[in-house]
Amino acid sequence: MIAGQALSQFPRERTWLLPALQAAQRLEGWLSADTLESVATHLRVPKSEVWAVASHYPELRMAKPGRRIVRVCTGVACIARGGRELLERCERRLSIRAGETTGDGALTLEAMDCAFACSVAPVVEADHTYRGRVTGAALDALLDGPTTQHAAPPLTGRGGPPATPSTSGSPGARFTMLRRDAERRRTGARLAVGVGTCGLAVGAADTLEALRVEVQRRGLAWTVVAAGCNGMCWAAPVVEVLRDGKPPITAARVRPPAVSRLLNALAANMAERDFAAPPDWMAAQHRVLTERCGLADPYDVADALRHGTYATLARVLEDGRPEAVIEEVRAAGLAGRGGAYFQTAVKWAACRAAAGAPKYLVVNGEEGEPGIFKDRHLMEGDPHRLLEAALIAAYATGASRAILYIHGEAELAAERLTTALGQARQWGLMGERILGSDLSLDVEIRRGAGGFVLGEETALLESIEGRRAMPRTRPPFPVESGLFGKPTVINNVETLFAVVPIVARGGAAFAALGGGRGTKLFGLSGNLRRPGVVEMEVGCTLRTLIDEVGGGGDVGSIGAVVLGGPSGSVVPPRQFDEPLVPRGAVNPGTGGVVALGDAAGVRDAVRTLLAFNARESCGKCTPCREGTARMLALLDETNVDATRVRALAETVQLASLCGLGQAAPLAVLSGLAEFPREFGVP
Predict the structure, then answer these.
(1) Domain regions of the chain by residue span
(2) Which parts of the chain have pLDDT scores under 50?
(3) Residue 385 — φ and ψ, nearest 5°?
(4) What pLDDT score does 280 carry?
(5) Among candidates 237, 118, 117, 130, which has minimal Cα distance to 595?
(6) Which of 249, 296, 484, 555 is at a distance of 20 to 30 A from 89, taking alpha carbons?
(7) Domain 301-510 belongs to what architecture?
(8) What CATH number was assigned to the domain covering residues 526-679?
(9) 520: part of which helix (H) or strand (E)?
């Protein structure tokens, strides 16, 4: 059955090993020994290596689960909002421990490292559906029966191919014809519901359906669409009121009972008074990358074209100078937003100059770090912008093949990018001779299966090639010998999102922001009144993020901040006014900001991060594999021996093969330095 239903679609090549395992698991719910043997036979990969890959990825199941699966998030953000207490409540109710299945096989309970919906913590996943802001009573209801609400709406792309596809003319002329076609499809006034991962977890699908039903019942001219999140996760479900020639109105906390009241307020021109969100949340931001998130219809390429998406690509192709694109990126000073902050133009130029074909572009949308959820926010909210950025990057670097690598549990992001990719192909914006130019790009979507190490770019390449995700030794660097031994550029989603405005407005305009460093996305979560995704100029402070944007502590004051996830640090209040600058006194890292209620939570947070690093070590190098586990044991002692911990941390930092291992002790070291009493250190 497995071979016939799940495996026949895959070519008999090793690179399809992970997708084949994922397809088999979707069919049966887990990977049995017979399934692994079938995969090995079909792909002609040794059984031992199939098992090695299957057992390597956290999202692949090697044991049969119960008929229902309940997973409670125990990431730092959820712990700060009561996630651990929810897990303990589950254990008491079910009389099992996390990781076990009830005796009748009815339910499997698991602790989840992160649900990546940190802004609506605490989060519980029941029956493959996220629920956010979960209370004890809501948890009891989830345990009592299957989840029947809050599922993602079944939506597909709208509009179909262009009415008059252009087959002649320059790239600019062809784009103009496409945009005219898009203009003819304008729908007028819209109600855009923020249906992102965070919104779905708190009922946005119900709001969407209630709006559609009520608008139809009243015979109103509004078009109701499922958009992405505008970043105001704290106010979800959010509805954006969009009317031609008028500024949008952002309506906060619109649950189904409030739908009729919202429509009445719109009819009476009172919506701005009765529903509009506080303006100060947006005022502190500088939205360049996120300017269309929450406003764009991710299922409609015509909407993207009407608002200028793909216009920059057309101009670049019309100009015909790929080197000029690289120079604009260089002038912008764009550095990788995945945490390493390596100069993007240096990568691009090296790949373009490298010998070998085909050249590859890999878009890293894996984002497997607890507390980090910005990239899926971008992919869900404005997928066509990511595709345009990938096309421009491919043109500049000489790449003819691209792989969008998306986290295995980022279902909504993958669905919307799949839809956008299909639409782009229909409209001649992807594939062979794009807009009649010499640019051709073959794009494929691959899904990850968990694994923090996939944030290391060479480990990501190993995964695509069908192996365990383990870092490669360097040199050679990927731009010289990357995917399948060919020149490869790997860029983070946020990095690529910056490319379009940089090329459209000039590198100098981006460099004028943030003291020459542009803007940065931050995911705010934990003990904050207004958690969500914000875009700020680089060099802002935690004080601004916490108090001005985040609204201050939700319960009491904020005693510390976990900044940058498992590879980041613990920041004390005395550093809240330091500018967030790469390699500065306070490094923004990947942009995760988890506010802790008081200093007493620091030790628990540090232990949670270190335990994650220890579990997620790929095992290739001894310092990381053994050192993180040993550090964790030292932290579990009543009075921590800080001298021994620091000595071991130094060894892990200096001797680990990749950047993730080298950064694993950072939270421990910063916690010991700034909060010694919490660790029993005099």
Answers:
(1) 2-54, 68-144, 171-283, 301-510, 526-679
(2) 150
(3) -65, -40
(4) 76
(5) 118
(6) 555
(7) 3-Layer(aba) Sandwich (3.40)
(8) 3.10.20.600
(9) strand 519-526
